[in-house]
Amino acid sequence: MSLPNIFTKEIADNIIERINHLTVERKPQWGTMNVAQMLAHCNVSYEMIYENIHPKPNPFFKFILKALVKSKVVGEAPYPHNSRTAPQFIIKETKNFETEKQRLIDYINKTQKLGENYFDNKESHSFGKLKKTEWNNMLYKHLQHHLSQFAV
After folding, report:
1. Using one digit for the tens of pLDDT, what is the confidence trace for 27-75?
2. What is this structure's pTM?
3. What b/e sequence results for 118-150 when a residue is b if at least 16 CB atoms lie within 10 Å of its CB, and e otherwise?
4. Could you give the CA distance from residue 9 to residue 108 in angstroms, rounded to a whole number?
């Protein structure tokens, strides 16, 4: 079974509609992040694509990530609740809900407009070159996981 295609306008708009149903008061069904921290956490994936603010893993650690983590991240199987989070994705500080929400919507729109062909064989921050299907799975699955966490 393939995951919905985040690169299509229909699926991107559906995700954005779900994000727009979030409120600052929304509580998670699992985990410790509040909704603003969750949005900031989801933004990290896009920061790694579009911003140069996260250090890339050294070659040895990148090898480990590719060998042990990549298939879980780019595969179709959903993430289990309360699964471990990479250090750069851990958001402990207070975040502004509206700012993080708008950033995420902007990133989703930018990604959709660039399209799947832009991402096909594009180098990822941690896993090397990924196929467009792997990019889709990684981006869609992560958003699906956290929007479900907050019941939207």
Report:
1. 999 999 999 999 999 999 999 999 989 989 989 988 998 999 999 999 9
2. 0.94
3. ebeeeebbbbeebebbbbbbbbbbbbbbbbbbb
4. 10
Q: Which of 49, 48, 11 is nearest to 144 (CA)?
A: 11
Question: C-alpha 13: how far from its chain's center?
Answer: 16
Supply 148's token pair.
Answer: 């479900």
Give me the residue label for tokens 């079974």. 1
Handedness of CA 59, 61, 62, 64 (dihedral sign): positive
Among residues 77, 80, 78, 82, which one has the least CA distance to residue 30?
82
Kind and range of the H or E element at 130?
Answer: strand 128-130
